[in-house]
């Protein structure tokens, strides 16, 4: 599974962090940090995070649960 | 579980209607799906309308919501539902078309509260902002120059003020509260935003309302007796759920707001408070149970956030299909970008009896406030501190489940009104 976040679109809404806190977080400088290749177990949460993003900035490939 | 449900009719072609349709297909519903929308436009996203669309950073057409592949829905646009006949399981449209349903989704959203009077607003110069066409019209007006008078200091009014200031226009913001956003997030966050807005050049007139719209010379009268010059007036006075078409159907409408009452699974309630089979509601038209029930809190709450439509779609679709309820109730959230700041919030700040300010730094434009009621965390708000929000949200979930109640600490700045 691969994740890509379009940083030109991301507005630090934070909903991906709520949906998949093991994959997405913010550092102290308010920069979004994420695991671009999360483990298979995270597929459900990552799919939710992508669907939850108001800016549709998250693309997920190969997230079959 | 999709075998027995008849045709599904979704009334409302906004975010809530589209998310409900997507969730129904995602749960395996393969039957007929009709989405009815009263606007001629295909589904679009509202949050950018009061921000990027006003400033011109985003063309209005760019707010179109993509229709997911495999949605296989019939879109009936430019038609409003005018009546619900539950006995005949039929929705009547304004062109006389009856739509039979096996399952009905109420997602008709809300409208902007109109000018309360006195008098009727003139044909030009006074704007509401709810739909995409409203945003296009207001942008045109702002391009014609100021000054701009914004009536209502909620999130919408403040975002409009921000957009108008960024275009270099003189802006006056009027609100009956002591500071902008105060009704939603309390006086501590409100006074922070008042300082930000004053610094940005907004002429704040708090503790007042617009008493009379501008006269021929473009001079409006405020309730405090002062006059304000205004070429364009924006009325940001709140939203009203679009549920007039449900009157007489026997469904339970909130006596205060008119929102359709529903349970935690989105099932519409009848006037006795019992769930009605085959009808669910979500989005701005729906009033689900209060996320933090307790003494003094209303039983149902229509928050009107983007997150409400999204977070309740799966539960409503499952309820319609006879599936299982959600494992845990959603935690509301909202965001607002204004005056170069990112305001982010979780929970329901307005449900608090106490606001605890953890950081208040106007120089670096950072704010962190935790909202409590009876010692439990019910909300949090940050400006420039989104990194802190997820932990607050987890605390809200834990304390709501009764697993942990923290004692108060930190600096108490003020009780919530």
Largest sheet of chain A: 2 strands, antiparallel
Total E-strand runs of chain B: 27
The structural class of chain B is alpha/beta
General shape of chain A:
globular
Task: Give a verbal description of the structure.
- The complex is a heterodimer of chains A (65) and B (417).
- Chain A has 65 residues and is of the alpha+beta class.
- Chain A has one domain (2-61): Alpha-Beta Plaits, CATH 3.30.70.20.
- Chain A has helices at 15-19, 43-52; strands spanning 2-5, 24-26, 32-34, 58-61.
- In chain A, the strands form two sheets. In chain A, strands 1-4 form a two-stranded antiparallel ribbon. Chain A has a two-stranded antiparallel ribbon with strand order 2-3.
- In chain A, strand 2 (24-26) and strand 3 (32-34) form a beta hairpin.
- Chain A is globular, with a radius of gyration of 11 Å.
- Chain A starts with a strand and ends with a strand.
- The model of chain A has no long low-confidence stretch (mean pLDDT 94).
- Chain B is α/β, with parallel strands linked by helices and 417 residues long.
- Chain B folds into three domains: 8-111 and 240-320, FAD/NAD(P)-binding domain; 126-237, FAD/NAD(P)-binding domain (3-Layer(bba) Sandwich), CATH 3.50.50; 340-415, FAD/NAD-linked reductase, C-terminal dimerisation domain (Enolase-like, domain 1, 2-Layer Sandwich).
- Chain B has eight helices and 27 strands.
- In chain B, strands 3-2-1-7-20-19 form a six-stranded mixed β-sheet, with helices on one face.
- In chain B, helix 1 (15-26) crosses helix 7 (313-320).
- Chain B is globular, with a radius of gyration of 22 Å.
- The model of chain B is unreliable at 404-414 (pLDDT under 50).
């Amino acid at each position: 599974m691969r994740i890509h976040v379009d940083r030109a679109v991301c507005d630090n809404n934070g909903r991906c962090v709520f949906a998949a806190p093991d994959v997405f977080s913010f550092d102290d400088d308010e920069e979004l940090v994420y695991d671009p290749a999360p483990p298979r177990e995270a597929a459900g949460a990552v799919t939710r995070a992508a669907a939850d993003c108001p800016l549709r900035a998250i693309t997920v490939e190969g997230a079959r649960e | 579980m999709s075998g027995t449900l008849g045709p599904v009719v979704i009334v409302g072609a906004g975010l809530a209607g589209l998310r409900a349709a997507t969730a129904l297909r995602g749960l395996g519903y393969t039957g007929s799906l009709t989405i009815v929308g009263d606007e001629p436009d295909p589904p679009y996203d509202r949050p950018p309308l009061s921000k990027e669309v006003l400033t011109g950073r985003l063309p209005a057409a760019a707010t179109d919501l993509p229709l997911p592949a495999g949605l296989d829905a019939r879109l009936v646009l430019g038609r409003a539902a005018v009546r619900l006949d539950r006995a005949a399981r039929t929705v009547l449209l304004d062109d006389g078309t009856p739509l039979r349903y096996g399952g009905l989704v109420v997602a008709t959203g809300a409208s902007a509260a109109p000018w309360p009077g006195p008098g009727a607003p003139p044909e030009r110069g006074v704007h509401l902002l709810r739909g995409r066409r409203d945003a296009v019209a207001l942008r045109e007006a702002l391009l014609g120059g100021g000054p701009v008078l914004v009536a209502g200091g909620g999130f919408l009014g403040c975002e409009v003020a921000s957009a108008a200031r960024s275009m270099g226009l003189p802006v006056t913001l009027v609100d009956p509260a002591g500071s902008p956003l105060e009704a939603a997030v309390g006086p501590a966050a409100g006074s922070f935003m008042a300082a930000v807005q004053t610094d940005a050049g907004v002429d704040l007139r708090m503790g007042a309302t617009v008493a009379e719209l501008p006269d021929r010379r473009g001079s409006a009268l405020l309730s405090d007796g002062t006059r304000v010059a205004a070429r364009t007036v924006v009325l940001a006075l709140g939203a009203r759920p679009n549920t007039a078409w449900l009157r007489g159907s026997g469904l339970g409408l909130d006596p205060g707001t008119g929102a359709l009452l529903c349970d935690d699974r989105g099932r519409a309630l009848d006037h006795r408070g019992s769930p009605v089979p085959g009808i669910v509601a979500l989005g701005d038209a729906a009033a689900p149970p209060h996320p933090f029930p307790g003494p003094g809190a209303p039983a149902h709450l229509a928050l009107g956030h983007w997150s409400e439509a999204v977070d309740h779609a799966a539960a409503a679709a499952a309820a319609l299909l006879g599936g299982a309820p959600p494992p845990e109730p959603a935690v509301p959230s909202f965001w607002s970008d204004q005056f170069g700041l990112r305001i982010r919030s979780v929970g329901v700040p307005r449900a608090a009896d106490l606001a605890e300010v953890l950081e208040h730094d106007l120089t670096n434009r950072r704010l962190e406030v935790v909202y409590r009621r009876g010692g439990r965390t019910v909300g949090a708000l940050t400006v420039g501190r989104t990194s802190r929000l997820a932990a607050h949200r987890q605390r809200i979930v834990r304390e709501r489940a009764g697993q942990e109640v923290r004692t108060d600490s930190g600096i108490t700045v003020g009780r919530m009104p």
